Amino acid sequence: MNPSRLMKEQQALNSFAAIAQETRLRIIRLLVVAGAEGLPAGAIAEQLGGLSPSRISFHLNHLEQVGLIVSRRDGRSIIYSVIFTTLSDLVAFLMHDCCQGHCEYCDQAIALFEKCEGRPSDSK
User: Fold this and answer.
1) Which neighbouring-strand residues pair with 73?
2) Whether 78 and 111 share a structural domain
3) Rounded CA gap, 90 and 9, in Å?
4) pLDDT at res. 80
5) What are the residues whose beta carbons fall under 8 Å from the beta carbon of 46, sequence distance 6 or more?
6) Following CA atoms 88, 91, 97, 99 in sequence, which dihedral angle do they give, to the nearest 10 degrees?
7) Which of 54, 71, 73, 84 sits 20 to 30 Å CA-CA off 95?
8) Number of domains within the chain
9) pTM as predicted
């Protein structure tokens, strides 16, 4: 991993704090599965058991503020997508010094995460 891209400790702390809450962790997991297309806020709320619009908005805003997700307008809907590079940086932050830098498994995982753009692979 490029050292200049390594996530800073405060960024990591903010990200971990955000996903240390059950609803926000579930949102991230839903958005990872949704991929680059993302999901509208209403669909997220529905999949989480029908959370109220104000409650889902609170959690989505929190995740967006720490840089884990991004929103875009599509007509009358707001679509939310996970930022895969931020998630990969978060994982890389944890794994950066594993095995004192000599761990082929960590290197492979980091390399795979760096390639992930949240889009389905054409090579199936």
Assistant:
1) 78
2) no
3) 10
4) 97
5) none
6) -110
7) 71
8) 2
9) 0.77
Residue 115 pLDDT > 60, yes or no?
yes
Q: Residue 63's pLDDT band (boundaries 50, 70, 90)? A: very high
The whole-angstrom separation of Cα 79 and Cα 52 is 17
Rounded to the nearest angstrom, the gap between the alpha carbon of residue 17 and the centroid of all alpha carbons in its chain is 13
| Within a domain: 65 | yes
DSSP for 32-78 reads HHHGGG-EEHHHHHHHTT---HHHHHHHHHHHHHTTSEEEEEETTEE
Domain extent, residue 102, equals: 85-115
Report the interhelical angle of 22-34 vs 53-65 (nearest 10°).
Answer: 80
Asked if residue 47 has pLDDT above 70, the reply is yes
Tokens of 78: 């707001």
Beta bridge partners of 77: 74
Are 84 and 56 within 8 A, CB to CB?
A: no
Note whether 96 and 72 are same-domain residues: no
